[in-house]
Design a protein that fits this description.
Layout: H1 7-57, E1 67-68, E2 71-72, H2 79-82, H3 116-124, E3 140-143, E4 171-175, E5 192-193, H4 206-211, E6 229-234, E7 239-243, H5 244-247, E8 248-250, E9 253-254
């Protein structure tokens, strides 16, 4: 004679399943976050390798910034274009955590501007005028202290290997803001930040000021918090996911200005 489950037995089974799901879901979420972080680190390391190859061919010079905030400035000299020939799979790298709406429609975003592939084709064909607006090209950008065109001071640049005393402590790559607020939208489509401006924010508002240009919480935390986490790539080639407070404490103590980085 076959016996059916009683209502109490069924409720016990449902409760056990619910408990197991409650235990497993956070673990699965953490595993996915760890995997996304590993991909992001790999992408930044690939940028560091491409930059190293570029520097070897250019007497130690670093790649430069070439995109204005939200538009075109010097397209042929923007670092994604400069590094395009130094990577096997293209340089328009998109982090798996990047949810910016400024990616082109063709790339699954919401912006009607030109994507990197088409822009690169036009540059190589010598068509550098009348390009219109640009979409987001990459999740990553340059620390402007390591550039020529947007350095904090044209009289003091750190755009070459020989000018950097502590490459292991100096950030070159970071994650650009996703542009999810009106105040951060322009920086979502450029290729660099202006780190010299961050220290001018009062006290505890420094992370919030930085978050308008860089997605400092791409890998955890809240924008505007010192404990927010993102990926950073250094001039010696290593990359790591770090809290904002680990890379920037004040204008006098940070890992962006090569004069004080340590």
């Amino acid at each position: 004679m076959r016996h059916a489950f009683t209502l109490i037995e069924l409720l016990v089974v449902i409760a056990i399943v619910a408990v197991l799901v409650g235990i497993l879901l956070p673990a699965l979420g953490q595993a996915r976050a760890t995997a996304r972080g590993a991909v992001c680190l790999s992408q930044v390391r690939s940028l560091a390798i491409a930059q190293r190859l570029y520097a070897d061919d250019n007497k130690g010079a670093f790649v430069d910034a070439g995109l204005a905030h939200g538009g075109i400035a010097d397209l042929p000299n923007s670092w994604p274009v400069l590094l395009a020939d130094y990577t096997e799979n293209g340089i328009a790298i998109r982090s798996p955590v990047d949810r910016s709406p400024f990616w082109s429609v063709e790339e699954g975003g919401q912006f009607e501007g030109m994507g990197f592939t088409e822009a690169l084709r036009r540059v190589r064909a010598g068509e550098t005028s009348g390009l219109g607006e640009l979409a987001r090209w990459t999740s990553y950008g340059l620390n402007n202290y390591t550039t020529r065109s947007v350095a904090p001071s044209p009289d003091e640049t750190f755009d070459n290997d020989r000018l950097i005393e502590r490459p292991y402590a100096t950030v070159q790559w970071l994650m650009m803001t996703f542009g999810e607020t009106d105040a951060s939208a322009d920086f979502a489509r450029t290729d660099h930040v202006h780190a010299e401006d961050w220290g001018g924010a009062p006290g505890g508002r420094i992370p919030l000021r930085a978050s308008l240009e860089s997605q400092i919480n791409a890998h955890g935390g809240h924008a505007g918090d010192w404990s927010a986490k993102a990926t950073y790539g250094y001039l010696d080639g290593h990359a790591s996911i770090e809290k904002f407070e680990d890379v920037y404490k004040s204008y006098q103590k940070n890992r962006f200005d090569p004069r004080v980085a340590q």
